[in-house]
Amino acid sequence: MNKELFIQPIKKAGIITCLFLFSWAASANDWKFDADLIKAYEWVINLQPEKANELLNHYTSNKLHKIYVQTLNETLQILITEDHARFAEFDLQFKERIKYLEALTPSAESLFLLAEIHLQRGFCYLNLGQEVNAVLSIRKANQLVVDCLKKFPAFIPVKKTAGAIQVMVGSVPDKYQWFMNLLGLRGSVVTGQALLTELRNSSSSLKMEADILFFAVKGFINQQFTEAAAGINDCLKEQPGNRLLLFMGVNMLIKDARSEEALQLIQRIDGQTQGLPMHYINYLRGEVLLQKGDYVKSIEAFKKFIDVYPSISFKKDAHFKIALNYWLLNDSPNAQRYFDIAKTTGSAKAEPDRYASYQLETGSLPNKKLSKVRFCTDGGYYKEAVTHLQSISPIDLPTLKDQTEYYYRKARLAHRMGEISAAKLFYQQSIDMTKNNPWYFGANAALQLGYIAKEQKDFTNARKYFELALSFQRHEYKNSIDSKAKTELELLSPKSQS
């Protein structure tokens, strides 16, 4: 078994969700911070750890609450910076807290906190590439969650921890579920969302966090980006300057083909210079500008990202995207130079890096005109996408892959523009032309037809298309498309609809 392919679905769901997993309490079932700790917590989730530490260093009222906020503060720093040296320092503190909590008489609070700290260690390990340690930590967290729920079923905060683990494990592709079962890990996205909803509907001070996590799942797992973006926007109305919410909003808007709106949120983040540096924003900026057709500025953004981002993640894709920008600028020498650099840069663990690696292995840059259609469609620049599509003639499509992608791009554009009948025809054409070739066009076309059928309440055909999406065996988005299709099939099950 390829452990990287197994770990990545967990990491994708985990790294996103782990930003929101911390819960607090004052009563037996609903934790609430006092005023001093609330302020420190607000600095933490605004990604301003130094300001949080100024308050935490003088806080003495509730040790358990303080442990929790401190751990969250440190975990977010690791997830944002991917700093191995910093994690070594923080992990010593994690271990000390675990030792302290294990010495206490078991209670809902101690079990919950132990579960959360183990889960956060697991996410840190994932982010730093220590997959075996990550799985062991997540397994331990799950055992503690099960124990807490069994002994203290009315304890609300642990519902979020349990919900997050359920979503993570439930989104792992079927072919790796045997390994999850071997570890005693069983999950369900539907169950996870139900647990989160319990917390959202409670009077807990965690309600807003549960809302954020709920919409993160809606977007990144269920692919309901419009609803997710709307939910994050509602949260931003309450906390318009929150950098974590702004970051989430940027991601959701880009996925919802609303890159111009995403660019506005990026500019709001640019205006906030205090706190942890958000270098990844330059990567997202590069994506948006590539979609917009502002290739020179896109190159600048990707280069800035490469210069300052401490991790190797996304570096291969960033170099590949620079090559694409030069390619679309008709600068073939620089395009080839960055294409060659990308081949030997970074890793292929993150999905964008895996896709870039797949393209790099072909030995050539993609079809120029089809690429312009793709990027404009992905960014919501539909007028420009139509113009590029209309400029394509048969001579521009010399290979079967190009011809297949042409119909796939027509389908994606029609779908985005609400022309559903045309989209369905072009998606089917994409499926028919893909056949057994190792291209993702057929698999994602089937997935999209499943979404359309589900929206039209044609659940029989929805199930058929989601199963068809799973049947495509070789393509560069196999893990993510399988995960999405599997989640939808679970949502369509009679038990989920009851």
Put the structure in a nutshell:
The chain is mainly alpha-helical.
Shape: globular
β-strand percent reads under 5%
- Helical region count? 27
The string of secondary-structure elements, in order, is HHHHHHHHHHHHHHHHHHHHHHHHHHH
* Helix coverage percent: over 70%
Q: Let me know the largest β-sheet.
A: none
Category by helix and strand content: mainly alpha
Total beta strand runs: 0
- In the predicted model, the low-confidence regions spanning at least 5 consecutive residues are 1-6, 21-28
Output the radius of gyration: 23 Å
Q: What integer is the average pLDDT?
A: 88
Intertermini distance: 36 Å
Oligomer: single chain
Number of domains: 3
